[in-house]
């Protein structure tokens, strides 16, 4: 059974990132639909999902619409008890719900002063006293979760859980504005930036250009602080090594990229461009890249 998920623009919609990670990170089948959050068609795009007025919104296979990420999280956990969305230990699970609820409802200064953007890191951003207070509380919560329950892995409760879903946009804000946090918190932020699903979300978002750019600040920028992508570029010439798109399986491979002197084809510019943005984020492409001896004749 497949769900439908309605999201906003990947580079800027923090709540949409949460909604998408709930499916992607726990292997729950979903079809994703992008709404006109910044183009003015949001209300029209959500017409059949009443009473929804914001993204993300999910629709269950039975046709039930569920908005608000906290409601979505609990609904999915209820429907997929074996997927591991919440920690198994009761004390850890209670704390994970607490942290997620506080994130869902709070930290208004951080949200207002630092809207999520996944394009670059601003240089010289000075957080307000209220934002610094939000960061201090966030670090307190992260430290508590890690000290009590985080020994089994890099995430707040060891294994990845819905609590990490809710704090992924916070990690993006800390990264995108160069916000000052202590080394343990920075390590947790870097775990998000290196997480392949997070990287896939960002790579897809970068395929869309904006003029003007939402939330732009008059500050210099540095490259995004996540893992440096492999050097790939779009090309119009060269014989692709593959005969099918690594994502769709379609035989049309006219849209091409070049990496390390090798050419690969895709069924449309979107498939190509997201891969150019971060090839290593896409296992299907990396499996193709690792193959040898399959170059077609000619």
Automatic annotation (TrEMBL):
It comes from the Bacteria. Residues 12-78 form the GST N-terminal domain. Gene3D superfamilies: 1.20.1050.10, Glutaredoxin (3.40.30.10). This is GST N-terminal domain-containing protein. SUPFAM superfamilies: GST C-terminal domain-like (SSF47616), Thioredoxin-like (SSF52833). GO terms for biological process: glutathione metabolic process; L-phenylalanine catabolic process. One of its GO terms (molecular function) is glutathione transferase activity. Signal peptide: none annotated.
